[in-house]
Structures are given as structure tokens and as C-alpha cells.
Amino acid sequence: MSRRLSLGALGVLASLGLVPASARAAAAEDFIRAQDVFINSASVLVAGKEYTTTGFRIPKVANSLDITITGADVGLPFSQSIELHGVRSGNLLSWTFDKTFNPPLELGGTQEVHRASGTLFFTANLLAGRQSPRCNDLACPRNVLLSQTPNSWIRVEGEGALGVGFSHLITVPRFRALGGLGQPGLAQLSIPDTAPICSGPVDTFFPMSAFLTGWAPAGGTKVDFTSTHPQYLKVPPNVFVKAGQSFASVKARVKAGFTGQVGVSASSAGVVVSRQVRISPQADCASGGRVRTVPLNVKAYVPDLLLGCINCTELIDIGMRDTGLVRVSRVDSYFNGSQLRPLASVFDVASVNAIDMTDSGLVTGTLVPQTGSAPVAFKASLEGGPSAPVLLGAFTPTRIASNGVVFGHRSTRTGNIAVYHDGNSLKDLPIPGASASQVTAVSDAGHVAGTYERSGDVRAFLFTDGTLRTLPQLARTTTTVPVAVNIRGQVVAHSVDATGDVLATALIDSDDTIHVLAVPSGFDRLHATSINARGWVVATATSSTGSSGFLYTPEDGLVDLNRIIQPAAGVVVTDAVSITEADRVLVNATAHGNRSLYLLTLP
Fold this sequence. Notes:
Blueprint: E1 2-4, H1 21-33, E2 37-46, E3 49-53, E4 56-58, E5 67-70, E6 81-89, E7 92-107, E8 111-126, E9 134-135, E10 138-139, E11 144-148, E12 153-159, E13 165-179, E14 186-190, E15 197-198, E16 204-212, E17 221-227, E18 233-234, E19 238-241, E20 247-254, E21 260-268, E22 271-280, H2 282-286, E23 297-300, H3 304-307, E24 313-318, E25 324-328, E26 331-335, E27 340-342, H4 343-347, E28 351-357, E29 362-368, E30 376-381, E31 390-393, E32 396-400, E33 406-412, E34 415-421, E35 426-428, E36 436-442, E37 448-454, E38 457-464, E39 467-470, E40 479-485, E41 491-496, E42 502-508, E43 514-517, E44 525-531, E45 537-543, E46 546-553, E47 557-560, E48 572-579, E49 585-591, E50 594-601
Parallel strand pairs: 15-22
Antiparallel strand pairs: 1-39, 2-3, 2-4, 2-13, 5-6, 6-7, 7-8, 8-11, 8-12, 9-10, 11-13, 12-13, 14-16, 16-20, 17-19, 17-21, 18-20, 21-22, 23-50, 24-25, 25-26, 26-27, 28-29, 29-30, 30-31, 32-33, 33-34, 34-35, 36-37, 37-38, 38-39, 40-41, 41-42, 42-43, 44-45, 45-46, 46-47, 48-49, 49-50
């Protein structure tokens, strides 16, 4: 059963490609905060004649809309000042003025201007990501475009030759100016490239993340996205990066059955980064039969010299390029491939309890800002941009999506309620009639999996592109609990009894086909931990005498990792912890009696 629901943040405007009204209003906020306005182009219409001006800087003090100008500021021959009083309504800005000149202004020796009055109306909008702000053909740090709206007027009154009075109504047919704050450029466009992106019988999705060179200013920043062939690979036209954030993520939609190469681009502050995306046939995502015949290489995940301890490492999560979150001697740390950095030091806080990380380096969990304070949920970017955490408030985070939406739960008297934080506020996950719910897995393409309880019946669910689907039960008398979901919407799940014991493990395809992963001979239980885009699953089988890590592929079924690692490695795999989109398996293993994290890779 599926049901279409408005999931708010799961679309996160990123999927829709729309910029919210709050973003338009934020442009006015940045304009007010900044100094000065640069007129790129303006014209006025007087008695049927059009006069133009360009290239003038209008002085404005920060944190105010009121402006004081002189004739010199706009290229006119007078030194008396005119006070313009500014008013804001959303992204609409207006200025009114009424100036009596004393002494009168002389124009051409035959006319005197006694009074000038008027009201000017403008809209403030954030510059598009592809736009590079220019002031007199030079780059200038601005992020707001000011454009005229109808009904602006200026009236000039005075006395002409022979003492004849005049009153001229002046209209403003064109006005474009730059204001606001400097906006960051684009540092990186991240697209999954460590495993094939494949088409399918229905439209499929994959995530893209654009990282800025710095924080978005107070009013936010636009990042534009384009596709060379939108009929086959569709991306939203733009996404709004909120103040204080440094990344934007969107979902790209691949047309059913399409294969080929498409160019995609992202841009911010006129800086454009382009990538080529190859869409492979569906079979390429499922292939992998060479695992049985090719021994896996083995290497320590974090070098011993960095650890400085024995039997002290636990994986929290792993991202692309083998970066990850690890817990070393109960201290949560970020491993970037060459350095091990305690997160408390990275974030300059008392302590951090990290929970989840995306392939693009977004992390969530809870932190204690200073000793003695209460833990708060947070999110941060550890790759491609600033790493200062964004505090989200008091709830329990469990997963973070590639678009920065954090999922978790809040506690009630009747149980936990699944929630998500979209960067603005905390909202309940919209599951009609549910008395309790939880999110257990999120994919980088925006799938959200978990369980809900309704009238005493606990069922597994999957949100895909805003549509809620109840997953099939693996057994009538047990509860199906999703463990992980990949970017194709395949879910690996457990069948759990009332005591929490795992009785069965299965892979659920997007069409609800169930592939049961049988418990290997000699073991009592099988616990799955992770799935990648190919549909490869890693799991740990346990018995009363020990445990071993296993890898499932559609071609080979379950394979004991200890049978396919290089014999000279000298390690014994006890747990399969995670599998990446590059088919790299992270395991717990022992060597010479010492337990540590190891990375298994195909040669």
C-alpha cells in the first residue's frame, strides 16, 4: 500500500527546485545589513524623453534602509542632500522623499527647481548562482539584485523662463542595482562516482551535493543546477542555502530505461563546477560475481600510529573516499584518510556523540556545548566547507540525509514519534494514525525507512519522493524492521520477535519482492548492517562459539568474508560493519589477538 503525502523537508525545495518566500524576504534582510548600493542601470522618463545613468555608488549605512544622497552621487550638479526614508515589506522595498531646495537648484541658467518629491518601489532578490556580480565590469561582493516595480514616481516642481512655474512627473521604467553581502562561491560538486549510477524500469534517483567555499550570508545563497539533457536526467533549477550553512543537496531524476552520459553543473556567485554523469544499464548495478574468485585485499582502516591504543576502535559510519567517523577510546573522531581529529576539538565543544554521516560528509548527533550544559542535536559539514555545527534543539537524532535534513525521534508518554528537522524547525513525520514511529534508515537519494505503530500493529514503511509505502511483513507473528536502504530503494530488513531477537533477514526490492538471506550453516543468527547501490549486503552471523562477517551479492548469495580475503593478511573477520558505494567492506577483525577495524577491497 502506498500513499502520497506532503513530506515537507524530503522535497526540501531541492527536489522541487523552488526558492521559498522566506528566501526572497531574506534578500531584503541582507540588503539592509550591508553598506552602499551600486547602480548598474537606471533610466527616467521626463516629458516623453528618456534619460539614463549607470555606474554610480549610492552611500548607505549598514543596518538601515534610510539613505542620504547628493547630486554628485547620481551625476547631477548640486551639493544639497536629499533624505530618502526606506520601508520594507517582505522582499519589497520602498523609499519616499520630499525635499524643498533652499536656495533653489539652477538648471541651465533658465530653470530653478524648488521641490522634489516621490516614492520609489523595488524588489530585492538573491542573485542566481550562475550570476557573477559586477560593478563597472569589476567583480564586487554583492548577493542582492534590486529591480524597479511599477508605480514608482518622482515629481519635480520649480520655475522656468519668464517666471512660469512647472511641475514635471518623472517615471522610472528601468532600474537595476546591486546591494547586500558577499556570497560564497562553489568549492565542489559531489556526485556518487564510486559505483555505477543505473537506470531502472521506473524513474530512479541519485543525490548531488554542492559545497560552498564558505558560510551562506544571513539572507542565504542560491545555488543553480543545470543538466545538458533534462529530458533524461532532470535536476531542480536551484536550491536555497540557508544562512550559516555551507552546502546544498538535491535529488537528480533518471528517466526510466535511459542509459548514456549527461553533463550536470552547479553554480554559486558565478563560479560553475561541471561533472559528467554516466547512467549505466540496470544490470551493471547488480553485477558482482567476481567476489568469489578474486581475493579481497586487507588493510587497517585507521593506521595504528594514529590510534595510539589497542582494541579501542569502533566504527560510527563511513563516507566516500574512506573518510569516516570512529570512536577511539570513547572519543568520537573524524578520520579523513590521513588524520584523526576529535570532533569536540573540531567543533570547539565539551563533547560529541556522533550518530550518522552521509557520503558527502554531513554528520549528525548530539553535542554538549560546554561542561555542565544539556546535550543538543546538531548537524555539520566535515567535507568541502566550514565545519562549525548547526544546533537543532532537544530531540534524539538517528539519521541525516544528503540534503541536510536530520531525522530522529521525540519521546512521548505513549512512545517515540519520528521527527525531522529541515533546518528551520522540528516536525513530526506525517504518518496518518500512527501512535508511535521511528526512522531507522535513510539513503543518499532521499528514501526514508522505519516503523510505525497503528492500533497495536507495528509495520515497516518507506518514503520515496514523498510517497509513503508500507513494506511487506517478513513473517506474520514478527515485526519487520528496516536496517538500511540504498539509493535504488532496496531495503534490507530484520524480522524481530517481541523480545528483540532477530529471527530472519531479507532484502526487499522496490517492487516488494522479498529475498530471504538464509542463516549460514553452523550459525544461529544473521544480522545485516549495510547495503550499497548494487544491492550488496554485509551481515554478521553469530553462534554460541563465535561470529563471522558475510557478504551477500545477487550472483553469489552469502559468502563468508574469511574465505575470500588474502590468506597472507593474517586477520580473522568477526563482524561485517558497513559496505560503501565503491564495494569496500569495513569489518571488525582480529590479528594476533588484537581487535581493530579493517578495510576489505577488490584488487
